[in-house]
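Technical note accompanying the year-one report. For the benefit of new consortium partners, we illustrate the data format agreed upon in the data management plan: each record pairs a sequence with a structure-token string. No post-processing was applied to the example shown here.
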Amino acid sequence: MQANIGDELVVHTRRVGEHERHGVITQIHGEGGTPPYEVKWQDGKEAVFFPSADCTVVPATPSAPKKA
């Protein structure tokens, strides 16, 4: 798995009734975009995270160019 700062990390659920977890990658501790990642989760908590097979990275969308 490879990611960039600002990408979204999604942890998919395996159980009925549980919700996916979403967070934004704020730091990358591995080489070349590899884990572990520091993630700021939707609930505001931050943690160092080692993604497993039930995780996906959603690339950050580039900002639209600013008009003068």
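Partners are asked to follow this layout when depositing records. The chain has a mean pLDDT of 90.
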